[in-house]
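Please supply some protein, with fold tokens.
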Amino acid sequence: MQGGGAGWRWTERPRTLHLLAMSAPAPAKRVNLRTPEVMEEVQAAVESHYHSPMVERLRASGGIGRFGEVTVRLAKQFGFCYGVERAIDLAYAARKVFADRDIYLVGEIIHNPDVNAQLAAMGIRTLTGPCKLTDIDRLSPEDVVIIPAFGAEVAVQERIKQRGCQIVDTTCGDVMSVWKRVRQYANDGVTSIIHGKADHEETRATSSRARSAGGAGHFLVVYNLAEADEVCAYLRDGGDRAAFLEKFRHACSEGFDPDVHLQKIGVANQTTMLRSETEEVQRRLRAAVVARDGSDANFRVFDTICGATQERQDALLEMLTAPPDLMLVVGGYNSSNTTHLADMAKEKVPTYFILNAACLESADRIRHFDTHAQKEVSASGWLPCGPITVGITAGASCPSNLIEDVLLRLLELKGVPDAAAV
């Protein structure tokens, strides 16, 4: 069977079950995907799928556009970051270079359903997660496996290596910097306190690196300030060990003992968390250690917030110093950095966290994600009549073409003539 997208073609091989031999296959040879010839075609394909001339014109004009009675303000930083662009480029390059081989992706390349659907249309199949199409144990040395921008757990990568697959690793450099820190913590006998979502792909990958030093390292994941405060209380005063372990049973390393493994702690974080919250987690944990020990000798911390995440948060804060009438935040609902942008914006102005232009159902009704209820909801009366200023931002996993679609739909609902020709 053959398939293709944007003029690209590949051949789908019939699947056969390969049982793991007594001796593991030889490691796959390293292949340079980023040759000038390949990347020229990759860039053309990526631009055709995700680029927006309209958004670029707005960027060039300072991020402000006036269309009839609608003023649009784009945040100074939004959308795809370097790490996301690199991951997508490598996925497209893999499809081009390995046109005659089956390609699998560990989970999602990024947290954006439109981008993941495009990769699926190119014949890149899901290997893990709720939508998986095969199992690691069914892979063969002829298969190609893409590690997403979030990285993958050590055990998952080791199983893939044992199958002898060609691995294309798109892990973001900022994520790998966090891994370096938690490995160092483990090697020094320091427990990693990770500010993040315990079930997020990046945090799971980071937690697995915190088990370095022959698996002797330990970790504890705290999601918010309330959970950080529970750890602080235990640091200062001790407490009910069983209740503590029950509370964090899905967010700590195997064999974790708060009476033993909180003696020396080091803070790390999921790179897409809210910087101000991460800094407050650090401050509170440091204060608890000082209260217990009389000094911070048993406390370590490094700044591991992603630069692109911080730039997008800072740009939104700058926009909100002169708030628009309403904010549209565009991105995948499971995107952590986009969720934080929506939470920041809604503290100042009416804010709607939307997946794409289809969420703008009419001038009266909009579908948007409620970050507190963790579900998509509908609202009415969202778009005021008369002149209006609308702020738009997007998470690091949102392509510009989706932002253009949202902008065009907004202008259509406000009755701007020939919006598509703007």
Summary: The radius of gyration is 23 Å.
